[in-house]
Design brief:
The complex is a heterodimer. By secondary structure, chain A is an alpha+beta fold. Helix content of chain A is 55%, strand content 19%. Chain A is built from 13 helices and 13 strands. The longest helix of chain A is centred in the C-terminal third of the chain and has 44 residues. Chain B is globular. The chains are: A alpha+beta, B alpha/beta.
Amino acid sequence: MNAQADRPAAGVQLSASLGIALKAIRTNSVRSALTMLGIIIGIGAAIVAVSISQGAGQQLQEQIEAFGTHVLQVRPGSGFFGGRRQGAGTARPLTDRDVDAIAELGEFVEAASGRIQTAATLVSAGRNWPTTVQGVGADFAITQNRAVVEGRNFSDAEARRGATVAVVGQTVVNELFNGNDPVGARIRINRTPVTVIGVLEEIGASNFGQDQDDIVWMPLASVRSRISREAGSVPDNAGSVTIKVWDDLDVLEVQREIEDLLRLRRNIAPGADDDFVVFNFAEFIRARNETEALLGFLLAAFSATSLVVGGIGIMNIMLVSVTERTREIGLRRAVGARQRDVLTQFLVEATVLGLIGGILGMLVGVGGTYLAAALGEFPVLISPWTLAGAVGIAIFIAVFFGYYPARRASRLDPIEALRFE
Amino acid sequence: MTPTDPSSVAVLVRCAGLGKDYVMGENVIHALRDVDVAIARGELVAIMGPSGSGKSTFMNLVGALDSPSTGTLTIAGRDIGRMGSDELSRLRNETLGFVFQQFMLLARTSAIDNVKLPLMYTRMDAAEKDRRARTALERVGLAERMDHTPAQLSGGQQQRVAIARALVNQPEMILADEPTGALDTVTAEEIMALLTELNHEGVTVMLVTHEEEIAAHARRIIRFRDGRIIADEAHEPEASRA
């Protein structure tokens, strides 16, 4: 007779153990459910945490791709009037000459453009459409990484002399021209006759839900002199300045160069505050996403704590189960169970607890994630890997914390176990 | 595997200078000492003695649940003292069957599933396990009660299920520890009749009891006191109905 030949195969042993485990869990269903609660909450919180942080990460990536990491924006700062700060944009405006000076920093800057923006109504052949008109330079398209797909963009010469030409977004094409090719059409914008010379690449809604195709670009000078009612006190007000930094340069270094240039141009004494603000999109988006990252971290810490508590819960209930079933263990050993058979039986039971807890936790986590997304307006991303990982962790926790009770069960002296009252 | 001594094929259990010591704090308790005894295949032996006499220790050793401190114990030609834990499990599974005073059935588990318990640790297809369990239950007269749980069975019926469980792997020997201790006199006689029948069919039976009426069914009575055998006598069974 071969020593191990006719012992049960591992698979047979596992399926038998699974049957015993399910029976034991069903017999004490309330107790088992309470035991699993820690795992359920921990796994649920972990899934919410990971989904929120992955969603935030994905949004960060999308926003960086949309804005470009190498884009800066300069705006006038807060002005003073009689010792009172007047709020953003109230300081001395940025002018066309400021824009040109920045654009001349050719070793740092690929393109720079002023931008003023106004609401205006477009009229064409009896139809009208209220939209946003942006007065920009010819290079604004470069800073926005946006192409003109039909017709052409206005030239630098047209921009400088204030030609009455416009490039329109797809929404405007749809609303004002019923989807027909608008290139060459004569329209009126706030009563000024304007020729449409191009159509902008369609890019859809922004991350903030704004339709970026419902827009008209015109030379800054013509918007300033003919369209906008808020031309301001300075005749060459360039609004805000958008700057495209060369891709191979460090944005923060270029930002400092531009700050130095503007301080010099605007005669700001060393040590005095800037009267302008430079926005770095990447920094801005990072700051915004840090909040979500922090939330994700707190939830991750909470879920880790909960999983440890859940694991201890499983260990506790398994110890109770081993004690309650001491005589059963003794009996099984007497009728031929090896130590490893008993070990397997209790490990399988712990695994099943972990698996059921993990699956329930997964459901709680997915529900909680959608709830958080709805309530907190977070972007979320639930990946199948997160769910699989979460269930895997639940099983790992259960096996880790179930091992000690299972080992204890397997090491019981069969004689003592049989006599146990 | 220890080779079987050809001169003693008939011997199932052989003890030579068998002793078992327990350490209790600073004291060593000699639960069993210098036991020399042989039990042949097909015997029905009663082990008697007051509590603390060593009879339970002897039973645990012969049941391969414990290892000797001194001397040797061979069961079916195999030296218990030289076997590892897994080998002892296997010996219990294949060669021995246990019957306990408190029946030791799994609650909320059908009679047939209780009987199948030892087969869980044997490689055998499900149909064969089922067939063996049914045969064993039929043998103890419970063909009609296979799906009953212990709570739905009387004490005598529960002990019959336990005997079927002991029989299911076709052991050489049944070890019965006070098998009638929890039963009334009439039921106890029925259980003893069943064990006697099984013995007549060739199964060696070792019975631990402190009741003379129960021991009276045996053909040999070994008496223990203070860890030693004080008497080993052949006996004419009184109530053999087989």
